[in-house]
Amino acid sequence: MSMIQNVKDMNPRPTCDRKDCPRLPSWQVGLKIWAKGFPRTPSTAIHCEIGLFLCDPCGRDTKPEDILNDASFELLERAARINGKAEPDRSSAKVELLPILRL
After folding, report:
1. How far is CA 49 from CA 22, 30, 36, 67, 100, in A?
2. Residue 38 within a domain
């Protein structure tokens, strides 16, 4: 077996992370959330990049509640407290689709 084949086997072509979707991902999912009681301006949002990669159709269908379950929201709350930030407002969460850079 050639070296190229070995590398190909170790790094299979990535697919969308949505269950049973065979498409090539185009987006990394991010989350934007604001603190309770603060104005929702672009500069006051908390931005989180998530290790979730989706294709165009799956990315367009993704809602904050698909990503932000109780456990993940508790992690965000804890991170905000540790860093001296205000409590995040779960209802303000928005999904951000960040382009994947291809080399």
Report:
1. 23, 4, 21, 11, 12
2. yes
